[in-house]
Fold Delta(1)-pyrroline-2-carboxylate reductase family protein.
Amino acid sequence: MNILLDAAQTAARLPWAPLVDEIEALLTDPTVQVPPRTVLPMAAGAFLFAMPGCDARTAMTKLITFTPANVGTATPTIQGDVAVFDVASGARTLILDGPTVTGRRTAAVSALGARWLAPNLAGPMLIVGAGVQGQAHVEVFAAALGVKQFRIASRRRASAEALAAHARRLGLRAEVVDDADAALADCPLVATCTPASAVVLRGQPRDDAFIAAVGAFTPQMVELAPELCRAIAAQGRIVVDSRDAGHEAGDLLQAGLDVDAMPALADIVAGQPKARDARGPVLFKSCGWAGWDLAAARLAAKSRPTG
């Protein structure tokens, strides 16, 4: 059996709707163990990440690099692998493409957050950033949540046009917008998916807005203006993807907010009923967590390729 899967083979093991469900299931599995990830700063703003995790049957470690200098080049910003092991035998069962796992599980976590938290899932959805994560968010919100209309904003017009064209090939309606802040008035769903080198959103969201901010995962990175974060904290609520966000959520830390006091997605999933009746806009701040990679590894281990 071939255990080394390329990007396409990895994606085939991680279909969107089952991946969202697997992430949700992981949050209620008492056997899951996920230690803090190791983040090693390297030259020129690059990082090496080592992210292990396990449950009663599956163990995995994701080892990837993040190289921001590669933005806009033919070399990916994220490179590496996810090694998957059978707990009972200790045998390595799969090696998954790291960037594919990262891209798909990050977008799937946003969709799960929206499933539980978004006051309005009707769309249209604003996507800020037209790279790998922008495309993944279009795909998962369409496949898992039924969103049909998208607005695409990017500092590179050609990238935005390419993503809009991809969405149309999927049977969706998509258009490019020049002003992301202006588009907030029409979009109850928002995802910021940029390299997080500068503020890309500062406007006033709708009262029924759900914003998934996924680009910033270090204290120095930022996508959302501090005043926007503070306004949502005052008028609505902020939920983080995991407790690790307390020392990683650059958008929130730079806004001077107490991240440790904010609920995590696991807290929301553990509570009943679902929280869509909460008032005001919702900011879902995602920094990444090895648990999301473990969920992907679990699904990949039991999935058969669909194509």
Observations:
- The two ends are 17 Å apart (CA to CA).
- The mean pLDDT is 94.
